[in-house]
Amino acid sequence: MYILLQSVLSVAVSVVIPTFNMGGNISMSISSAQSQTLRDIEIIVVDDGSTDSTQELLKTIASEDTRVKVITLDQNFGILYARMELLLHPVTSKFYTLLKHSDTKSILYYLRIIITMIFLCHK
């Protein structure tokens, strides 16, 4: 059981957060992803041409945590385009998920998903 838990904790997951003008709230979503129990987590924030303090805040957060990567679009193209930006900047893990820029998840959220997927695949 311990070996299984260790291998599950080591599964790589990319959390993608599209955002636009959320300088006041985006740090909560990023912090939620940073706090996950999974060890190998990549956080990709796609800034959809923000005109407020979002870009500066994202630069600061990314400089303090190498797991956070920021993709900045020149102008606001909309959330669908921001999500499609992943086709040009692919994630580095087998699994990825989208997180709204105003959402937070419990620290066990992604771990539970991975355990469920492993359980269902081995039935």
Automatic annotation (TrEMBL):
Keywords: Transferase. InterPro entries: Glyco_trans_2-like, Glycosyltransferase_2, Nucleotide-diphossugar_trans. This is Glycosyl transferase family 2 protein. Coiled coil: none annotated. It comes from the Eukaryota. Residues 14-89 form the Glycosyltransferase 2-like domain. Dolichyl-phosphate beta-glucosyltransferase involved in the glycosylation of glycoproteins through the synthesis of dolichyl beta-D-glucosyl phosphate which serves as a sugar donor for transfer of three glucose residues to the Man-9-GlcNAc-2-PP-dolichol precursor to N-glycans. GO terms for molecular function: transferase activity. SUPFAM superfamilies: Nucleotide-diphospho-sugar transferases (SSF53448). Pfam families: Glycos_transf_2.
